[in-house]
Design a protein that fits this description.
Blueprint (H helix, E strand, L loop, with lengths): L1 H25 L7 H4 L11 H12 L3 H9 L6 H26 L5 H9 L1 H34 L8 H18 L6 H26 L23 H9 L7 H9 L9 H28 L8 H48 L6 H24 L3 H30 L5 H20 L6 H4 L8 H32 L3
Helix pairs in contact: 1-5, 1-12, 3-9, 3-11, 3-12, 3-13, 4-10, 4-12, 4-13, 5-11, 5-12, 5-15, 5-16, 6-7, 6-15, 7-8, 7-13, 7-14, 7-15, 8-13, 9-12, 9-13, 10-16, 11-13, 12-13, 13-14, 14-15, 15-16, 15-18, 16-18
Length: about 500
Amino acid sequence: MLLFIIGLIILVVGGYLYGAFCEKVFGPDDRETPAVKLNDGVDFVVMKDWKNKLIELLNIAGTGPILGPIQGILFGPIAFLTIPIGCVLAGSLHDYFVGMISMRNGGAQVPKLVDKYMGSGMNKIYNVIIWILMLLTGVVFIYTPGDLIVNDMLGMDVNSNIIWVVYAIILLYYVVSTIFPIDQIIGRIYPVFGAILAASAVGIFIGIIRDGGASLYNITNTGLLFSTHPDGQRFIPVFFITVACGIMSGFHGSQATLISRTVQHEKQGRGVFYNMMIAEGFIAMVWAAGAMILFNRGTDITTGATAMVGIISRELMGTIGGFFAVAGVIVLPITSGDTAFRALRLMIAEQFHIDQKSASKRVGLSLVIFIPALLILFFAKSNANGFNLLWRYFGFTNQLVAVFALAMISVYLKTHGKNYWISLIPGLFYTFIVTSYIFHAPIGFGLESRLGLDPSSYVISYTLAAICVVLFYVLINNISKKRRNIIREADGI
């Protein structure tokens, strides 16, 4: 319980202080924002500050900050420290600077920012990765809420035909929210979703406090901070791929750039972008603690994360409260899936210069997006290991995209004569995480296993990852030198 409380203090106090520091580094001013200057009544629309905050939170908080921490707590109470520290120093920083840099560039999506600050070569690579991530995110956020609705709310088999009816309803909502102006659908329905989300998170938190720490201790009693993972997985890098959204997520960049088009004043950015990621960190902490309590009360540690959602909700909030908690978890992916598809539409439109003021062009582009999404969903549902494969690639791609964003932020800060180390250090760390993971993991190169070494050994993967970290640092410096004058002239410095 003590580590949990310390973690919350780090999250709140650290978030307040470091958020103020990040704001000072960026330097928001009174210039016109894209919402005011480029208002088109569709994607560029001035919305109230509280509504921007709520939409940003619901956009970024999918099932990641719930399912990830439930699995991540199996590594031990260390999660109560790494989640808030990572959220303050990396995740919130990432979201804030992406949102603010986008605002300074006419509400540009991340691919356009990568092109401007890192060059067309990097942009081509990034575009492929981010478009794949948006598709995977949208599909994951049809699959997971659909299964939760059928299993936990309707009490039916997720493999029955009813699941496709539920998927169709969710997809229909995504189509509507993707096509219509942001303030007409998302801006109106999200306050209701936000109330459900708040009730579920606060309810689980109250259940944890009521437990009084009696069940909040190391699951395997193997030490103060670490537990022996049931699958023998390494804390580094697997923990940071598993928890992902509760600490940092590349997907968030695509959502921050959406809201950068609806913020009226630059000085509202800290509350909208940085603080809402802190709120997501709180959600992650709460569900990690709830999972630890249930595991220590005897719940099988091999129970799937999705199944744990219902168990935690009912145990800590009772039948009725548990129903609303599950509803809150269902809300999260739905309110991320709709904007994932919306962001993908805008990215493709921006890349190929497709005017989005025309309703017919928005519909046509949306159809292009949803067809492959349906094919991926069908594969994930019809293949026994389909969803597991989908989720692993989603997690890895999510963090890889964040590395690109941190690199872009570092180049922006360095070329503007600002403290670029605040983004470069997290960028170097996550470069090590994603490269060591993909070099070692079975879904990647599986180097140790293929070379006949002990599968638990990370010697080669760690070595190659360290080389990639050095190359990342060299790359940032070279790009900054080559593009310094171009960027400074374009930004009017």
